[in-house]
Amino acid sequence: MVSGAGERCRFGAVWPGTAALLMSVAACATVPAEQALDGISTPPSWTALTDDAPAQAVTENWLADLGDARADAVVAEALARNKDLENSASQVGAILANARVTRASLLPQAQFGFTASSVRTPAGDPQFNPETGEFEGGGEASSSDSYRLSTSLSWELDVWGRLTDQTRAAYLDVEAARLDFAAAQLSLAGAAVQGLYGLTAATLQRQLSERDVETGENNLRVIERRYERGISTSLDVRLARSSLAQSRANLAQRRQTEIAAARRLETLLGRYPAGQMQGLGTLPGLPTILDEDGAITGVGEPGWLLVRRPDILAAEADIEASGLRVAAARKAFLPSLSLSASAQSLVADSYDDVSYDPDDLIANLVGNLVQPLFQGGRLRANEKAREFQLKSSLAQYGQTVLSAYEEVENALTAEHLLSTQYTAQALALEEAKAAEALTVRQYLAGTATIFDLINAQQRAISSESQFITAAEARLSNRIDLYLALGAPFHPQTDPDLIAFDQPIGSSKEGS
């Protein structure tokens, strides 16, 4: 048993009093979500943070914190058009409808009936009478009609609360589905912004490769002219051609990457994946989340996730629903009491003669008390199935919480390391560009070889490419941090105002 109450929670051996039995059912089925975290030592602050600064509230709108209107636009469009989100919304509606079906079992069920029948007797065939030598008998066809009205009422009284438990569990399923939908919205918003910045980074990489190809073509022309004058060797020409061919290959690969990124974003936004969407001109800067001492702020405490993240709250609702279903399965062993009533009018020969006068009704009222005795183990198997489902819900909750902790810890660690990487990469790019410019002057002066020039150019290209990658990684990780914290977001753009037939960044006025 999940609750640890052992055999006292079972119905097999001893039949206790009704009050004690119901208390036992409730105690065994009620399991706090915190039980799933037994044995897990949750620290008071994130281990990825080395400072002892007091916890501060998580941002109330991470989308606004980015300060990027086009990021706001893609989120609004994704929420309005994404097909997976539409599917999730429909599933919430279906679960709500099923909950209402379950709730109907608490109420009386009434039916009204009208019966009409017509009986036709065919004419008889005449029979030959040998005594008279004539055909006798037969006759005309006849018919008779009859009409009757009836009503019936049935109601299972929820004496032990079994039907209430099932209804409450069904509505907790609705709550869990709504929370899962909120988690899907949060995830989609993050994916849309990351998709926009990923597309922007792919565009910048493609533009970098185009400049690389252009530089390689210029180098080849210069080297070929120097070769014609006898200054350069055929080896220089071949090396320049090889470098240019490699640059063109890199350009083709980056064009493919850019188109794939555009199609991913278009699909997220519910557009046809034509690969025509454009990224931003540059990657935006990141808003700081550091205080004056360089410590990360606005991430709260680990325990705050339990009341912030919609997926954790959904898993908690699932535990409560599973516990109620365990209780309902155990109450199925108890007697059930139902009432049924019916009333029928007297049979009439015509519809106009049908009377529903109370004095002419045939009525009955039946009370039905049923105690399950033997059902081939169905009730016991159903109880075990519900208990295992409760165990599964507890395990799922624990795993969801641990995964949430892991996501935040990883994002916080990456926030420090990616910031360091970004700063170092910016310096590497600056120095690589300065070295490239110096090598070009030395090569033209004859003091550097073609090897030196190509290597310097490739280092500059590589450094700029890595800088773009580092900048995009910082943006993506910041969004991952917001998602891991369950931070809310509120897009301000009206999706109906977005031009769906134009790439992001363009406008009708400017076209």
Verbal overview:
The protein has 511 residues and is of the alpha+beta class. The protein has a single domain (35-110, 157-336, 378-495), classed as Outer membrane efflux proteins (OEP). It contains ten helices and six strands. The chain has helices at 18-29, 62-66, 69-81, 83-103, 162-228, 234-268, 305-308, 310-331, 378-445, 450-485; strands at 109-121, 127-129, 134-136, 142-157, 336-344, 362-370. The strands form two sheets. It has a four-stranded antiparallel beta sheet, with no helix packed on it. Strand 2 and strand 3 form a beta hairpin. Helix 9 (378-445) packs antiparallel against helix 10. Keywords: Lipoprotein, Membrane, Palmitate, Signal, Transmembrane, Transmembrane beta strand. Residues 1-29 form the signal peptide. It comes from Parvularcula bermudensis (strain ATCC BAA-594 / HTCC2503 / KCTC 12087).
Outline of the structure:
Belongs to the outer membrane factor (OMF) (TC 1.B.17) family. The protein is an alpha+beta fold and 511 residues long. It has ten helices and six strands.
Describe how the helices and strands are arranged:
Blueprint: H1 18-29, H2 62-66, H3 69-81, H4 83-103, E1 109-121, E2 127-129, E3 134-136, E4 142-157, H5 162-228, H6 234-268, H7 305-308, H8 310-331, E5 336-344, E6 362-370, H9 378-445, H10 450-485
Antiparallel strand pairs: 1-4, 2-3, 4-5, 5-6
Protein name: Outer membrane efflux protein
Signal peptide: 1-29
GO molecular function, one term: efflux transmembrane transporter activity
